[in-house]
Amino acid sequence: MLDDFFIRALLAGIGVALVAGPLGCFVVWRRLAYFGDTLSHAALLGVALAFLFEVNITLAVFAVSACVSIALLLLQRRASLSADALLGLLAHSALALGLVVLAFMTWIRMDLMGFLFGDILAVSKLDVAIIWAGGVIVLAILAAIWRPLFAATVSPELAQAEGMNPERANIIFMLLMAAVIAISMKIVGVLLITAMLIIPAATARRFVSGPEQMAVLAALAGAISVFGGLFGSLEWDTPAGPSIVVAALFLFVLSLLPVPGFPASRRSAAGDKVQPLKGDPS
User: Fold this and answer.
1) What SS3 class is residue 274?
2) Which residues contact 248 (CB under 8 A, 6 or more apart)?
3) Cα 242 → chain centroid
4) What span, in angstroms and rounded, lies between the C-alpha atoms of 187 and 120?
5) Which of 64, 190, 200, 276 is deepest in the core (most CB within 10 A)?
6) pLDDT in tens, the chain (282 residues)
7) Helix residue ranges per DSSP H, the chain
8) What secondary structure letter does DSSP report for 267?
9) Are 164 and 154 within 8 A, CB to CB?
10) Residue 274's beta-bridge partner residues?
11) Under CATH, which number does the domain 4-194 receive?
């Protein structure tokens, strides 16, 4: 018989996986792994501000992540730096600011490791409700903008020529990323959030023939990782958040093994570019 806290952890983890999988596909297609890292680093500043102003942590993290996303868009238009340089600037500046703000708040005692690496076993019923409610909203919005967002991923110019608004789709995508970072923080922590976006999507890619199937399989791979990671954590007394990421990594390694009916590799003869799925922009 499983304890209540473990069931809550399962529900919370699965809720995050079902959202992170489809969104992570766009992170993989657009090669935006470092953008996910930037938002996750900024999450610590959101935590610090939440304690400072005594507001909900999830809302504070979402607000800060959204502000960082908007700042990136503005800097891309005005600064002469590359996207990687801007992402590095924002990521480490936000992380440093968060740590400095926390250092000044000597009257507050907090579990910093829990925010860095997650504390899924401590989620409450309210946390589970927030994760599932937020997840449903994110998935509904993602479904609504799937076509223009995917078209903008393949070719922004073509999307605009077809009457779509790729810039608006990009902004909404960034806000959805901020929302996923906010609801995922308590599961695997700010340092490992990007792994839940990238690894399940990378695992799913080999076994599908289209983007929609990849999104579904990525969500399934994430959910399996949550199951495996939590039960492994219970069995071997390891940290739950990192255990989930290790389980996701294990699935990815398994996906690389030869399987009858599937190609052994999606790499081109040149070896430096992944062969696209049908409709995959990569």
Assistant:
1) strand
2) 195, 196, 199, 200, 203, 221, 222, 225, 229
3) 15
4) 5
5) 200
6) 678 889 999 999 999 999 999 999 999 998 888 888 899 889 999 999 999 998 988 899 999 999 999 998 888 888 778 888 888 899 999 989 998 998 888 887 777 788 888 888 889 999 999 999 999 999 999 999 999 999 988 888 888 888 888 888 889 999 999 999 998 887 888 878 889 999 999 999 888 888 999 999 999 999 999 999 999 999 999 999 899 999 999 999 999 988 766 665 454 332 333 444 445 555
7) 4-29, 33-53, 57-78, 83-104, 112-117, 125-144, 146-154, 156-161, 166-188, 193-205, 211-236, 240-255
8) B
9) no
10) 267
11) 1.10.3470.10
- Contact (Cβ atoms closer than 8 angstroms) between residue 214 and residue 280: yes
- The answer to whether residues 266 and 206 touch, using CB atoms and an 8 Å cutoff, is yes
Q: By the 8 A CB rule, do 275 and 267 touch?
A: yes
DSSP category for residue 190: T
Retrieve residue 112's tokens. 């910093």
* Residue 51 to residue 54: CA distance in whole angstroms: 5
Question: Tokens at residue 75, please?
Answer: 């800097």
Q: Give bridge partners of residue 267 from the DSSP assignment.
A: 274
CA distance 158 to 166: 9
Distance CA 281, CA 155 (A): 8
Domain map (residue ranges) of the chain: 4-194
Tokens for 63? 């607000």
Chain Cα centroid distance, residue 248: 13
Q: Which residue, chain included where needed, has tokens 């219970």?
A: 234
- Name the token pair of 18: 């079902």
